[in-house]
Amino acid sequence: MSLIPAWSTWAASVTTDADGGRLARWLSGRRTASAAAPCPSDVEGFRRAQRLSFECSQAAAAQLRPGWTEGATQRWMLNWLADHGVRAHLHKPIAAFAERTLAPDAQWGPAKGEGLTLRDGDVAILDCSPIVDGYTGDTAYTVSVGNNPELERAQDFLSNLRTRLPERFADPDTARDVFAWVDREIRAAGYQNAVNGYVGHVMGHRVYHHGSFFSRLPWFLPERPFGYIASWHGPGFLLTVARRWIYPEELGPLHTGPKTGMWAIEPHLRLRSFGCKFEEQLVVEPGRAYWLDDLSQKRITCTPG
Prior knowledge:
By secondary structure, the protein is an alpha+beta fold. It has one domain (7-302): Creatine Amidinohydrolase (Alpha-Beta Complex). Helices cover 37% and strands 17% of the residues. It has helices spanning 7-16, 18-28, 40-63, 70-83, 149-170, 175-188, 223-226, 228-231, 235-243; strands at 94-97, 123-128, 131-132, 135-136, 139-145, 192-193, 204-206, 250-251, 261-265, 268-270, 275-277, 280-285, 288-291, 301-302. The strands form 4 sheets. A 5-stranded antiparallel sheet has the order 8-7-9-12-13. A hairpin with a 2-residue loop joins strand 12 (280-285) and strand 13 (288-291).
């Protein structure tokens, strides 16, 4: 998650450089306020936000047709959320079609301008993160235009992975052990791990309950001078991550800190010509982890042109 324009370059060097890797592991081991297990009322707040996020993506998926652009889809999702009372977001809605679903290295984010146009047979990923009563609901949802058996098999794999992930978070292994396990499972199934192309190889991140000020901010930082990646994240999220030293808040190959807290988990596969992912929130308590609900498992196929 980028906070300044130079962050992506710095994060990549820290991930691969030996001295930088030691620094990142040390920083990630810090116990921050994010490691506190959420109380029942907070869990319910995150659940409400996540449900609205999935409802938005699924409503957009039901409307998608060939000819829609990524930009128009993002605006549709933003307007839908505004109509449902949302003013602030962790990040702007993302619509990625066709080859952009592969998540080219360090390029995952909202389309600039109109972006790609949806065609028959394309795969699309819809990602949004409304803040509802201060709680973040960050989800991603994959659909196809028409039946796609290859996508169905990838979604079956991700569903099975999702079933087993809570147990991995509940055991004593570190978060980087979870990352390594997921990476092995993805490769053993014959897929590529698309999050290796994300800045910092992030497979998940903490999500937060924001105060009233940041829960109502309808704007984002300007791309100049803050850079593209920072410009599509909400300022409340950016400031919280920065205050907590970034690395304790990211689940990746270097994380050695506590796993407890509220996470948005987002495994992302690369297939031959498209990508497939899910993102949803996992509650991690000492010795126990669970998903907020099962809305992510509803599958929608878009109508061909």
